[in-house]
Amino acid sequence: MEMEIKTLGKFRYVEEGEGEPLILLHGLFGALSNFKDLFNHFKANYRVIIPMLPLFDLGLDTGVGALAKYVQKFIETREFDKVHLMGNSLGGHVGLIYTLHNQEKVKTLILTGSSGLFENGMGETYPKRGDYEFIRKKTELTFYDPAVATKELVDEVYAIVNNRLKAIKIIALAKSAIRNNLSDELREIKVPTCLIWGKNDTITPPMVAEEFKQLLPNSELFWVDKCGHAPMMEVPETFCTILAGFLDRHKA
């Protein structure tokens, strides 16, 4: 079933289900399809919302801070309170910045392959951006099993990096994420936090998860074997089982 994109003012999002709000934040090359299995699993018990982050529409203020402000305005506009906030990759970074300034609004925080401490990216430039095979191999590195990088997914990434304006935005956001290191601030986050990490993540390697666990005082770390940077895509059943157990412990 196709996800229905809703519009409210400047916000575009997908939303289904009833119950406590579970907001999913995608990463730099994220798409709605990244959360398809997660969305379908949790909409039976939660109000699941995926805001479409304006990665390419931020103007001069292109950075993770601006994306966090966008999420703040979205949550305020929807009048959500005590949200479960999940982010993958750059989305996790955005979720961390939002939480740092709005802890009273966040019931739980879930991070998977999150930036904010250290990350290996696609690179600061795209010298081979017209080379489909180069992009395919880079996309495959996101996963433990390269077969997860379907032609459809590679085509999406290829289309982004071959659009000059979008490529410039991607580079700006990637540089912003590297500059915006949160190691000195994470101890301030007291929100219950669930870290779900692929043991074979090459973009935010296992040492990053261990540092998050050390710095976030109220966190739990769950490892997923034979899994890369996007566990919710690569092993959705395992991911949903871990997350459901964590959320059950923190429901009203």
Automatic annotation (TrEMBL):
Pfam families: Abhydrolase_6. Residues 22-239 form the AB hydrolase-1 domain. One of its GO terms (cellular component) is membrane. It comes from the Bacteria. InterPro entries: AB_hydrolase_1, AB_hydrolase_fold, AB_hydrolase_sf. This is Pimeloyl-ACP methyl ester carboxylesterase. It comes from Taibaiella chishuiensis.
